[in-house]
Amino acid sequence: MSVAVRAVLFDLLSALLDSWSLCDDIAGSEERGRRWRFEYLRLTYRTGAYVPYRDLVARSAATVGLPRALAGELETRWDELAPWPGAGAALRRIARETPIGVATNCSQVLGVRAAGLVGAPFRSVVTAESAGFYKPDPRIYHAGVEALGVPADEVLFVAGSPRDIGGAASAGLKVVWHNPAGLDGGGAERLAVAVIDDLSKLAGVVESPARPSGPASRPAPTSA
Fold first, then answer.
1. Alpha carbons 181 and 2: distance in angstroms, whole number
2. Per-position pLDDT tens, the chain of length 224
3. Domain identity same for 101 and 140
4. Domain end point (choices 52, 80, 108)
5. Structurally, how many domains does the chain consist of?
6. Beta sheet of 174-178, edge-to-edge order
7. Which of 8, 34, 69, 169 has the highest CB neighbour number within 10 Å of its CB?
8. Would you say residue 26 lies in a domain?
9. The domain boundary residue, chosen from 46, 80, 114
10. Within this chain, do residues 195 and 137 fall inside the same structural domain, yes or no?
11. Torsion of CA 214, 216, 218, 222, to 10 degrees
12. What pTM was estimated for this model as a whole?
């Protein structure tokens, strides 16, 4: 299924970057890292108005029995966040015809740093800090849409977690779930127009209004 949109907005830390592996490494094992990461997601998605991102990361570590100091280690090693395979190439392909941006749950400084790791020409990077609210509050999605200058119903949001699917859909955006980690959607995936496990598949979902799907047409000649 393809959808006609004029811009694409991305979650960053799950949809484009493999934050799972870095958290696993910092925590000392996949089991501890996943407990920390899931608790962080649970805490963040119920927070609402922005509070310092580092505090949420530290609190989620402590809740699952890990040292609060892991939050500082995550910031120190932030630039080790790795894009999911093919992320940069997939986004550059889409950006040739469709503006792309980010709406992510972290501080502005860390959000800009993380976006730079993807290797894609983002038009805008909106964070929980710059918007004043954490997802799934609709105001951060609306801030991301406003930064792209396109009506919400003409924006596709690429979610990285199940809660992001419902939040973006409630804000009036079409949603694709990129789920390379194989997470259980808990039924939220029914709100998405597509679920993909590889970002190379996103181009098959995004349909630019200027170039609808169907037989390819001969490109117009250009002047020298």
1. 23
2. 788 899 999 999 999 999 999 999 999 999 999 999 999 999 999 999 999 999 999 999 999 999 999 999 999 999 999 999 999 999 999 999 999 999 999 999 999 999 999 999 999 999 999 999 999 999 999 999 999 999 999 999 999 999 999 999 999 999 999 999 888 999 999 999 999 999 999 999 987 665 444 443 333 333 33
3. yes
4. 80
5. 2
6. 124-127, 100-104, 7-10, 155-159, 174-178, 194-196
7. 8
8. yes
9. 80
10. yes
11. 90
12. 0.90
Question: Are the beta carbons of 129 and 106 closer than 8 angstroms?
Answer: yes
3-state SS, one letter per residue, for the chain: CCEECCEEEECCCCCCECHHHHHHHHHCCHHHHHHHHHHHHHHHCCCCECCCHHHHHHHHHHHCCCCCCHHHHHHHCHHHCCECCCHHHHHHHHHCCCCEEEEECCCHHHHHHHHHCCCCCCCEEEEHHHHCECCCCHHHHHHHHHHHCCCHHHEEEEECCHHHHHHHHHCCCEEEEECCCCCCCCCHHHHCCEEECCHHHHHHCEECCCCCCCCCCCCCCCCC
CATH classification of the domain holding 76: 1.10.150
Question: Is there a single domain that holds both residue 65 and residue 120?
Answer: no
Q: How far is CA 76 from CA 70, 81, 110, 134, in A?
A: 10, 11, 11, 22
203: containing domain: 3-17+81-207
